[in-house]
Structures are given as structure tokens and as C-alpha cells.
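hiii, so i know i said id send this last week but things got crazy w the move. better late than never?? heres the sequnce for the chain we talked about at the cafe, plus the structure i predicted for it. fair warning i was half asleep when i ran it
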Amino acid sequence: MIRGPIFVPQGFYHIYSRGNEKREIFLSDTDRLRFLKRLTEYIKKHSVTVLSYCLMPNHYHLLLRQDAGDSISGFIHKLQTAYAMYFNKRYERVGHLFQGRFGAKVIETDEYLLHLSRYIHLNPAEILKSHYSSIKSLSDYPWSSYPDYVGHRKDELVNTNFILNYFSKINPSRDYKSFVESSINEESLNDLKSLKNLMMEEPPRMFKARP
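okay and structure toks below
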């Protein structure tokens, strides 16, 4: 059996999961708010810090730090179970909401940490290219932590200090914005799609199937 990362205190991890059969797991803003509400509740109970996040229609990304001994695997299990129960009841459906096991990658270098935060916040860039979207900039997308990083919002859910400390002391939010948005071009969007496909198609790691 292929094993995933061992969750340890002060470890950093990329957690991601998508809908069963690639179906959407968020059908309304009410759904997204419910997921974030549960996320906020469970991080307090499990000594987990959220550094970055993004909710997309059929998947989500979390950049997490495990602060104490509680395993992130138990935290994600509770989060996905609670959300799946809500979703199935709301839409009168049965069966697994999420596709198999959630993905988990350990982050071992500062460079990877910064790159991953940028990658997570660039996910909505595909939506910006749609003529039907009312979202015209990454900072307008309300379902990621990017508005918190660039100073448009201050949410208790996400801790931006750790990553912003890598940037200038004068205006770290401005420098982070430049770091992320300098990557928005046709080539980088193609790279983003390739990386996303690789991550989301990768064989699941050690975790049991979730609801």
C-alpha cells in the first residue's frame, strides 16, 4: 500500500479533495459558507492553522499547519463527513460526495510553501477568463484566502502572517499580490491546469474512503 505523509506537530501539508466522478461539491454560496463554517469550527478543536485555501466548484485546496498532536487525517475526516451529510440532506441524495480518499502532500521547503500558496490562490484564474463570470480579478473571488492576503478582507479562519513574513516589511500584501498575479498569463494558466490535473488524478494515498 502506498503511504502518504506522516502528520506531525509543526508540519505543513497540502490537502485537497474533489467530488465523486468529478461532480460539483458546491452548488451555491450557502454550501460554500457551510463548508467554511465547519472548517472554522474544526480547526479550533484540532489545533490546525489554515494558511491558504480555495473552494472551486468540484474540489477544494487547503494549506495547513498541524500545531499539536491531533492528526490532520482525523480533522479532514470530520470535516468531509459533516459537509457530506449536510450536502446529501440538502439535495436529497445518497452515496459518497467526495472521490475516494483526500490527497495529502507534505511541504518540506520554504520555496514549495510559497509556490503552493500561489498555486492555490491562482485556481480561480480559469474563472476570470469566462465571459459569463462576474469575477474580474482574483481578489474579487470570495471563496479563497486571497482577499485576506491582499488586504481586502480580514477573516479569523486564515493566518496570513506566516507567509507574508517572507515578503517586505513595508508592504507585504502588495508584494505578495505582485508575486501571485505576475503569474497570470496564458502559459501559466496552462501550467496551472497541468499541475492541477496531475495533483487531482494522482493515485490516492494512505487514507480510507470518505463520504
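btw Residues 11-201 form a domain with the Alpha-Beta Plaits fold (CATH 3.30.70.1290). thought thatd interest u
miss u guys!!
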